[in-house]
Amino acid sequence: MIISQSVAILGAGLVFPFYILFIKEVGSTFSQFGISYGLFTISSALVHQWIGSHSDRVGRKLYLVLYAWGTGSIFLLFPIVTSIWQVYVLQIFLGFLGAMQKTSEKALIADLTNGETRGKQIGVYHFWTALFSGIAIMGGGYLIDFLTIEYIFYIGSMILFGSGFLILKIKEHKKEPL
Questions:
Q1: What's the CA gap between 39 and 47, in Å, rounded?
Q2: What is the pLDDT of residues 65-106, one digit of tens each?
Q3: Which stretches of the chain score pLDDT less than 70?
Q4: DSSP of 72-135, one letter per residue?
Q5: From the CA atom positions of the chain, what is the Rg in Å?
């Protein structure tokens, strides 16, 4: 779990802090960036509850894999975007996928941890994912300096696809309802 999600955060972290630069290259304004990010957040909010209850029935791995491979696929579309409405559509889909990751990640952590040491285990989990996030952000900055911004979308996509394969190795434990 720690490895798969640290890798996913590495892939996403290469892109997310810098995609405002990409949006600016499409010719948009900061208000359009606000709309874009707002669409991401609102679309995420609209599906969190459904994802949570559905993942209780089908498991968490499905949604974590859909997040990794879906986000990796969408990252491949960003370099061919030519107008802000296309960014808006991609942001809505990224919001849905982000909800899959956030809700399923937290539920799976609860499923895989012991109540007596859950806090410690979650602390270790967040240490590694935060570390990989910081590495991704710094690495993304350097990559943009040496390559073009489009390349971080491609690299982030490859890393996210790899994360999806790592997620498949997670052993989910089905709990019986109380």
A1: 13
A2: 999 999 999 989 988 888 888 888 999 999 999 999 999 988
A3: 14, 17-28, 173-178
A4: HHHHHHGGG--SHHHHHHHHHHHHHHHHHHHHHHHHHHHHHS-TTTHHHHHHHHHHHHHHHHHH
A5: 17
Tokens at 18, concatenated: 């810098």
The residues, ordered by sequence, that sit 6+ positions from 65 with a Cβ below 8 Å of its Cβ are 164, 167, 168
| Both structure tokens of 76 | 């491949």
User: DSSP of 131-172, one letter per residue?
Assistant: HHHHHHHHHHHHHHHHS-HHHHHHHHHHHHHHHHHHHTT---
pLDDT at 69: 94
